[in-house]
User: What shape does this take?
Amino acid sequence: MLRTRLNDGLKEALRAKDQRTVSTLRLILAALKDRDIAARGRGETDGIDDAEILAMMRTMIKQRREAIALYEQGGRLELAEQEAEEIGVIERFMPRQLDDGETAAAVEQVIADLGANCIRDMGRCMTELRSRYPDRMDFSKASGLVKRALG
Assistant: This one.
């Protein structure tokens, strides 16, 4: 479970005296606790599930990338570097993303499995890719590959 991995990662970072990892994991766990409290209000006593935790972490990465761009525009390279280090910490707990070659192979496999042969099958292909590779694929790239293969 992702929640356990995050807590274990914090313990390891504390032992290793890795301040960047400690502070980043504490931010993640604080945001997680806030979401758990909000979920209890909706009647979910166990807190949020792994899918919601991953979505929260993707949002955190996106925020940091936006901050990096702003810091670089403002000439604050040390702050941009700090944000980049935080992205690295967060990504250690995310599922490994498929590279371009693996994405292309997955697209070809899904098209073959579904017997897709025209652009009208694109929706079915994308739905199948999302179900097989949740959180592991850049679906905007995959969409372009599917469109090219079927178009």
